[in-house]
Write a sequence for this structure.
């Protein structure tokens, strides 16, 4: 029977440590770190994520500034706002909540964010830093959180076969690179992978970041594997569920993250860590 990796508890402990570090930063520098959060439109999931991020800022002692813009916001207005925040010395981190409405060019907006303030780690510069293992960069929060969750098991990562399902720039690719940096042998699977189960069954560490309810079932998992479920989906009854079928995978896994209460809280904790890192680089 798999042990549950309690992401909520691990995130709370991390936030407690961050609160102390942020208090020390604020005392020595004479101001709190500041995060600007931009949201365009009223996507229900994004509204919840932004609210949780603002709450996390309050909990750890980061000043936040929320820009909730109308769905009809024009590209030029958004670009101007990002430029203004880039130049504002009092702002340490800038986060543009994705997805943006379809008439806006997300890639252009993300590229415009000063890489030193890109606390989501989505910009080309920061993705490049991760590729080159340059520790000065700001790395994507969800993969950073996943590494902490895996490390919390105490299992040695070096030499393990890690299988990542999903290859997005935000989750799949960066977590694959981080696992490689931790000396795992990494396989990346995606929608064109043939016979997905033949790969997942060989995983000592299985990270699933797809966005399809219960895609991975018990018969696809190796006995004793560490299973990290990144997905956030709604099942037929409207209940939150992951990409992993918890009921059938739990008895086989060595460790498993629940949804909710696994990767999600860690993502937000790592956002706070990135904001502190950005603030330290902006004094
Ligand atoms: P994307 O939609 O950007 O990427 C999904 C990936 O899954 C793609 O690479 C796609 O392959 C692959 N895929 C799709 N169908 C299959 C399949 N049947 N078999 C194998 N691979 C498949 O999603 P994200 O990476 O942004 O997010 C993934 C999930 O994680 C979502 O549910 C999202 O909500 C959640 N999420 C959760 C976070 C958290 O904090 N807990 C943070 C970020 C995301 P291809 O490239 O070939 O299209």
């Amino acid at each position: 029977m798999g042990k549950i990796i309690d992401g909520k508890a691990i995130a709370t402990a991390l936030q407690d440590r961050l609160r102390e570090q942020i208090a020390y930063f604020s005392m020595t520098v004479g101001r709190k770190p500041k995060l600007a959060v931009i949201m365009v439109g009223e996507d229900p999931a994004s509204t919840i994520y932004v609210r949780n991020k603002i709450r996390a800022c309050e909990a750890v002692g980061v000043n936040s500034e929320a820009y909730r813009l109308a769905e009809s916001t024009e590209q030029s207005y958004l670009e101007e706002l990002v430029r203004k925040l880039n130049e504002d010395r009092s702002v340490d981190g800038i986060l543009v909540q994705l997805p943006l409405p379809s008439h806006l060019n997300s890639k252009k907006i993300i590229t415009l964010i000063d890489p030193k303030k890109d606390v989501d780690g989505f910009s080309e510069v920061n993705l490049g830093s991760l590729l080159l293992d340059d520790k000065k960069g700001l790395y994507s929060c969800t993969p950073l959180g996943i590494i902490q969750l895996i490390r919390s098991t105490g299992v040695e990562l070096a030499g393990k076969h890690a299988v990542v399902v999903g290859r997005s720039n935000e989750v799949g690719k960066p977590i694959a690179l981080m696992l490689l940096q931790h000396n795992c042998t990494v396989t990346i699977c995606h929608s064109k992978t043939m016979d997905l189960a033949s790969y997942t069954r060989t995983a000592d560490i299985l990270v699933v970041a797809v966005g399809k309810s219960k895609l991975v079932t018990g018969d696809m998992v190796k006995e004793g594997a560490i299973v990290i479920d990144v997905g956030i989906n709604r099942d037929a009854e409207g209940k939150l569920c992951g990409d992993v079928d918890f009921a059938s995978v739990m008895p086989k896994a060595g460790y498993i993250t629940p949804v909710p209460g696994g990767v999600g809280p860690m993502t937000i904790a790592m956002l706070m860590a990135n904001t502190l890192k950005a603030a330290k680089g902006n004094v």
User: Anything to note?
Assistant: The radius of gyration is 19 Å.
